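Why this split exists: single-chain examples teach little about how molecules sit against one another. For that reason, every record in the complexes split bundles all components of an assembly together and asks for one structure covering all of them. Below is a record exactly as it appears in the raw files.
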Amino acid sequence: MDDRPKIESALGGYRILDLTDEKGLFCGKILGDLGADVIKIEKPGGDPARNIGPFYADTPDSQKSLFWFAYNMNKRGLTLDIETSDGKELFKRLVKTADCVVESFHPGYLDSLKLGYEMLRRVNQRIILTSISPFGQTGPYKNYKGADIVLWGIGGMMYLCGDTDRPPVQVSFPQAYLTGAAEAAAATMIAMYYQETTGKGQHVDVSIHASIPWLTMEGVEFWPMMQVNVKRKGVFRESQSGAQELQIWRCKDGYVHFSIYGGVVAASFMPGLVKWLDEDGVATETLRDISWGDFDLHRVSQEACDVVVQPMETFLKKHTKAEIYEGTKKYRALVYPVNTVADTFEDPQLKARGFWGKLEHTELGATLTYPGAFAKLSETPIKMWRHAPRIGEHNEEVYFKELGLSREELLQLEQRGVI
Amino acid sequence: MASEVFKGIKVADFAWVSVGPRTSEYLAEYGATVVRIESRRHYDPLRTTGPYRDNKPGVNLSGFYARYNLNKYSVTLNLAHPKGVEVARLLVKWADIVTDSFSPGVMRRWGLSYEDLVKIKPDIIMMSASLLGQTGPSAGVAGFGLQLTSIAGFHHLVGWPDRAPVTIYGAYTDALAPRLQLAALVAALIYRRKTGKGQYLDVSQLECALQFLAPVFLDYVANGRVWNRMGNRCPYAAPHGAFRCQGEDKWCTIAVFTDQQWGAFAKVLGNPKWTNSPKFATFLDRKKNEDELERLVEEWTKDFTPEEVMKLMQAVGVPAGIVATAEDVYKDPQLEHRQHFTTLSHPEMRAYPHERSAAILSKSPGKFIRPAPCLGEHNYYVYTELLGMPEEEFIQLLNEQVFD
């Protein structure tokens, strides 16, 4: 099963022990994509994150969670109860040959098991322990309970999203945990580089909360610059002059995204759009006459902004999302379909680049199509090495073959509920 | 003192706007020498995008640009000038990593494609970050993360089921790509240490962003389901949302997942009668009557500030948090405890707090020691000191407008 060409993957030869739950699974997945041997360690019976939907064939079953499949691809899997004394010993033996442990328990939990950083360091002084938590390992909120929506909110992202007359919103497929896990992957790589060059391990403390303000891009920066709190605008966007520009427009079969830019960007893209509208017979004279390089969003009036509204509405009513996507490429305009997951899946660009990849799930008697590599690395391509592990799938491979436990010991530990 | 992790690693950063610069900013935070190659003829768009310090536009006054370029050097270089390309080749020779985020084909036209770079520096690592990748029928499509957020399928998933989708603030996919790019880039550095080989990284922002929706795509592929937006609802929690609090546009999130949390939640409210009503007795009951549940929760939260709700709920183990404004983020006690903001003094923007990345490394912490560079601030230092260009040559090239 382990058919990985060790050296042609960027992180071939590195081993990561993954103790995370849904807060951190994506971190190990990223490192696994880059070729590390990531071993997901879960409690006997399976990790609670296996109960997160959606499920294959809509069948809630801990072996059929599509959430689990997505974020545990490219990992192997062991069961181990690290709360038992035998489990602790086995875990320490695994730590000896590992480069990094990633966990997302409540801060202090591993210390309480005597498996915290100081303890792991005694087992393997090179070890990196990456701890992912809602608010961080120390500080006034360290014991606060996180939830994806809570972190999205307190990190400053939620306040900026949603209709003005309703509560601010999260993304319906929540994003805060994934953001924290991606930050953890970046930070772990930084620590691994340091380990590689100095031989030193360390404790990496990742706060999901602290990873969120970066999602606002320049959003939070309005505070130190101007003492302004940007507010959510629903389907609108506010230009620097205060004019409201519609961003989400209805078209024949759904919605498209378009907003007016000013200056250099407008000069590059608006003439194409005006030409397109003109050929479609909906451009007005006022629209044709605008010198887009002089269109300044810092000064533009609401009236000037609205000059596109009526022609755009007439135009969009006639066309489908697919037609608009084709046209926007042809005319170099900036009108893009608001894709559903089905639209994105059919995107010819993704198909042409071979983005989607297939993995056979013999246990389901099915082959599933997955989002593929996040980057194309010429020497060390990211591959779909393996599907997410079934519960305890690699117990034998690791405990029996690698750690040299006897069959009898393996059986005994299973009966004790250790593995 | 600078962080020592990437000490000695040199980055020639031809990338602009946010995705490339944010990626190289991680490297700069952890000690790499990062030189932004800019132009006086085509400003980095972030230099001409607000927010500006005190709302006064200026190429050295954009907080947006500054946010993405701490600890870096800035040079200006005119790549339309043949001698400009020669200087770019010197930068490549100096560098371990070259990044760019131009439309596919631009670097090639300048004679700075990966194949060209390898001839100058055989073990170079080059990363091209683009919207849709370097290959494929739409490779040259123009746009920004704002549009890509629509293409990726995010916008369809934000807002309320009875209304049009709303946008995610900012260029959301721009914010997703850097962390993955950084992981890949450092992996490439490690691989180079082990094998002596550099490589080329073709990163599509769309392909990075879709990782953040992977289960939604699997649900489509396996079950034919097309996800729709659902406000703040969660299939396995209730109540779960943002609730109006005392004050203008003040909100607090509350998320109740378990029976135990429901009991604790009700207790905080003083166990009002409705919490014991059969309508809300079980999770399924609360789900069935969620509209009414949300109204009742808000009846209670509206008399408290978001901070009060958060503290009362968290004291009994119920996940809750303020819905933070930008000001709240800068004044957050937990972020303050983590020293998440570093005050640096910029020659034109003066002193103000700058945001760090979100991890604390116990033995080799990242550190911002220099504010964002002014445009071309380090021309002399970089060209003469780092590249070793003789002073006479520097002056000559300056006079020939090679550094425009």
